[in-house]
Amino acid sequence: MRGIVLAVLIAGPVTAQDTPTKAQGLAAWDDMYSVTSHPRCTNCHVGKGGIPMWNGLTYGADAVHGMHVQAGDSRVGAETMPCRTCHIGVASANATPHAPPMIDDAWRLPPAELAWLGESSQDICVQLRDPETNDGFDMEELATHLEASAFVAWGFAPGAGRSTPPIGLDKMIAALNLWASAGTPCANDP
């Protein structure tokens, strides 16, 4: 017990200097945007059109997802060809190049409100800090989503020589937490 009290006394009270600055928050956002704007993420975060992409990958020119896939309003392709036709919901090392990737979850596109493809840093920043436009998450829940989602984990480690975002998942979560602690600043905030 004495060690805990000593640690608290040494640490001192929490002060304003413990809160990250707006500049630190914006730098953390830049790291986050490097992920949210990466094709590994934007290829599925496509918005209302529901047509996943194969941009920035190893297939040559940017292209729509093969097989004329459309997720539709269901976000799982129920209206045309379900994602599960090729994407199997089981854990896998995803070691075979160009094979449909597998995760331990049912494949689907993110909600249409979470469109990132072609969106600016400012647009995605404003979107992610607002539970009305980020699928209902507060910042703590958003961090938990990053930690727990099979889709997110796959995006950072897709296997089979697939491209990955420029920072790892742990750094993304740290950036989110710093950005949240700084008050979720966006570049064009007053």
From TrEMBL:
Q: Which SUPFAM superfamilies match?
A: Multiheme cytochromes
Q: This protein is called what?
A: Cytochrome c domain-containing protein
Q: Which organism is it from?
A: Sulfitobacter marinus
